[in-house]
Specification:
The chain is mainly α. Helix content is 68%, strand content 0%. The protein contains 3 helices and no strands. The protein starts with 6 loop residues before the first helix and ends in a 9-residue tail after the last helix.
Length: 119
């Protein structure tokens, strides 16, 4: 918290402090989002690897043709059932816990205080 002050100066200090903390929150959310995407990919790819998906290694090739999302509409519609199952079985069971742990570590790393102290 900023040093206490009277009147406009106190309000200005408090608002400046809040803006600074929200800037840190933006970084935390960016990292958490990237981590969630990476974690979801790891789970999906690991399941495909265990099932012997021969096509999986093609994704890592330099010349892999990565299509824009808009060009995948038909294919995306076909995987909605799988997406829902992964969400139910992975994310709700363990994915949220994994992301909370990563988020808490990131919060502690940047030093953002929470109402109960540090996460």
């Amino acid at each position: 918290m900023p040093e206490p002050a009277e009147g406009h100066e106190g309000a200005s200090r408090l608002l400046g402090w809040l803006v600074n903390k929200f800037e840190g929150l933006r970084e935390i959310m960016d990292v958490a989002s990237d981590n969630a995407a990476a974690l979801a990919c790891e789970v999906g790819f690991t399941h495909l690897e265990r099932e012997g998906c021969a096509e999986l290694q093609k994704l890592a090739l330099r010349d892999f043709n990565n299509l824009p999302y808009g060009e995948l509409n038909e294919d995306v519609a076909k995987v909605q059932v799988v997406k829902a199952a992964i969400f139910q079985r992975f994310w709700l069971d363990s994915g949220k816990d994994a992301m909370r742990a990563l988020g808490a570590a990131q919060i502690e790393a940047v030093g953002v205080p929470t109402p109960g102290g540090y996460c």
